[in-house]
Design goal:
single chain, alpha+beta, conserved putative lor/sdh protein from methanococcus maripaludis s2 fold, Elongation Factor Tu (Ef-tu), domain 3, OB fold (Dihydrolipoamide Acetyltransferase, E2P), 4 domains, four-stranded antiparallel beta sheet, 25 strands, 36% strand
């Protein structure tokens, strides 16, 4: 009898252990999902670009003649005035050239005057007179050109501003038109940004721009488009220049500073549309749908939607099927069933970095 009693007790313990091991609670069966709140397109954050301030009058100064630089008279950061000499070239060869041309001119002039005097007295032909007159005019232009070349051995600033970059130093040989200095104007600072091809194609939808700087805090400065490049660079981006509608009074804003540019879009054609993560949308049973989460029952229900467009930022525009404020499953939708009970993934608070607390 004692042996039979022990046998029954062993069976009961085994059955209890099996039951505890294989019968999870209802809560443990519920799948954990990430839920997102549906927002209208107009609620989404403005498009932002990283910009850099540029001088509206940024000029590369270059000699109009070739030669060896004798002296660069300014340093980076120096203020220069329009017309100020900023660099000089070794002018020896141009002085010799001008002296030779001057002597040639004097000879041609004397010969031409004698021929024209003879023609006035009727002692030579009209052809000889024309040759002398035109030869003198040609020589006058040659002399003027060589005078200009000698004058061009002095490089003058074409704007009021600051020397930003020195490309060459004294003693270096440069060609005509080769930049020696970069001077930025001290007025009319602009902002330059790069936009994608899709933004370029819809540039007219941008209704306003503004920018902020770290040195000015939360103060925003309104901007207006000045010009847009019509050719993409090697990164397939287009340059856009914007000017300040009211020039900031802060002396801290100078060319070369980084700024965040905020762009507002016109959403007239998007009224009533919502934006959802692409991972929330699936195609099943021949229709496009999402899973809407019901807070009261803790279940999800599939609902057909109409997707208008797919965005490059991993979202989709939905024109029908969803309302602002509804909650949808943001990921893992391919593993859910219609009416299935789920648990919402609890996200850590903003102050709980990494969800460690």
């Amino acid at each position: 009898m004692k042996t039979i009693h022990l046998f029954f007790m062993s069976c009961l313990l085994a059955a209890g252990f099996t039951s505890c091991h294989h019968e999870p609670s209802a809560q443990q069966k519920d799948k954990i999902v990430d839920v997102a709140v549906v927002k209208s397109v107009n609620e989404m954050d403005a498009t932002t670009f990283t910009g850099r301030t540029k001088s509206a009058s940024e000029v590369n100064l270059a000699f109009r003649v070739a030669g060896q630089i004798a002296r660069v008279l300014v340093e980076e950061g120096d203020y220069v005035k329009q017309g100020q000499v900023v660099a000089v070239m070794d002018s020896r060869d141009y002085e010799v050239q001008l002296a030779a041309t001057q002597a040639e001119y004097e000879q041609v002039k004397a010969d031409a005057e004698r021929v024209m005097a003879l023609y006035a007295e009727g002692n030579t032909t009209a052809s000889n007179n024309d040759k002398a007159r035109y030869g003198l005019q040609q020589m006058e232009q040659k002399l003027a050109n060589h005078k200009n070349q000698l004058a061009d051995t002095q490089l003058r600033s074409t704007v009021n501003g600051y020397v930003q970059t020195k490309f060459h130093e004294s003693g270096e040989t440069v060609g005509a038109g080769m930049p020696v200095l970069c001077v930025v104007g001290n007025r009319d600072t602009e902002v330059e940004i790069n936009i994608s091809a899709s933004d370029f194609a819809n540039i007219e939808r941008f209704t306003g721009f503004s920018c902020k700087f770290d040195v000015t805090g939360e103060e925003a400065f309104p901007l207006q488009i000045v010009r847009v490049s019509q050719e993409a660079n090697s990164s397939q981006l287009y340059k856009v220049r914007l000017k300040f509608l009211s020039m900031p009074s802060h002396k801290m804003i100078t060319p070369g500073m980084t700024t965040m540019v905020y762009a507002e879009r016109s959403h007239t054609e998007w009224d009533g549309m919502v934006k959802v993560p692409s991972s929330a949308v699936l195609n099943a049973d021949g229709r496009t749908q999402v899973f809407v989460y019901n807070e009261q029952s803790g279940t999800v229900k599939s609902r057909p939607v109409v997707v208008t467009s797919v965005n490059r930022d991993g979202t989709m525009l939905v024109s029908q099927g969803l309302q602002r404020g509804e909650k949808i499953v943001a990921s893992g939708v391919h593993h859910l069933g219609d009416g299935e009970k789920v648990r919402v993934l609890q996200k850590p608070a903003a102050s709980n970095v990494g969800g460690l607390l």
